[in-house]
Write a structure and sequence with these properties.
Elements (H helix, E strand, L loop, with lengths): L4 E7 L1 H4 L2 H13 L3 E8 L3 H7 L9 H8 L4 E8 L2 H9 L4 H7 L4 H5 L8 E3 L3 H11 L5 H13 L3 E4 L4 E4 L3
Antiparallel strand pairs: 1-3, 1-4, 2-3, 5-6
The protein binds guanosine-5'-diphosphate.
């Protein structure tokens, strides 16, 4: 099996508030062959949201983006797959919800995006951003150690899926 890549996925607050959207997106993640390496529910505070979206600080939509991201809990996942970064972005669809609904209605943003701000999900856009974003939001998770010690089990699918925590654990047996 080819090497696995890691990406950071966020299900944004309006998804967590709607059990149907949450369940449907989780189902899509699993049916698209992503493994969930880390998983947590997390409410962004102002400081973390601003650090996370620092590159957008001069954009017209920055304030509404920070207000939205701090408005309630999000789900954060570290996802593993071959070519995970691009595959997750393909599954999410275009950034702009209305474009997604028109051009790619089957994507996550096409189905669950409510507006350009409330566009359902986030995904890292490069290996460098994935490392930075995972480092910020999962400070105890060591990407290098994961590749060295755990990737093998994920590649060989020696895993148990914990439904309740929405995470894959290694089956060392
Ligand atoms: P992404 O990588 O596809 O999430 O897109 P960006 O990194 O360009 O933007 C980060 C986030 O800012 C997006 O996911 C949206 O929530 C928000 N955003 C981006 N462009 C716009 C816009 O034109 N209007 C509004 N209201 N929000 C935007």
């Amino acid at each position: 099996m080819p090497p696995l890549e890691l990406t950071l996925a966020i299900l944004k607050p309006h998804v967590i508030k709607n059990p149907h959207s949450l369940a449907s997106i989780r189902k899509l993640i699993l049916s698209s062959h992503f493994k969930v390496v880390q998983s947590k529910r997390f409410t962004f505070n102002d400081e973390i949201a601003k650090r996370f979206y620092n590159e957008h600080k001069d954009k017209f939509f920055y304030n509404r983006l920070i207000t939205f991201m701090t408005s309630g809990p999000s789900d954060l996942y570290v996802l593993a797959r071959e070519n995970a970064i691009q595959e997750w972005r393909n599954l999410m669809g275009p950034t702009k919800a209305y474009k997604a609904q028109y051009d790619d209605p089957e994507t996550i943003r096409g189905q669950f995006g409510l507006s350009d701000t409330r566009n359902a999900t986030h995904g890292s856009d490069s290996a460098q951003s994935a490392a930075k974003e995972i480092g910020l939001l999962f400070p105890d998770f060591d990407i290098i150690k994961w590749h060295d010690n755990e990737e093998y089990y994920f590649r060989s699918n020696s895993l148990i899926f914990c439904c309740f925590d929405f995470v894959h654990k290694i089956n060392y047996k």
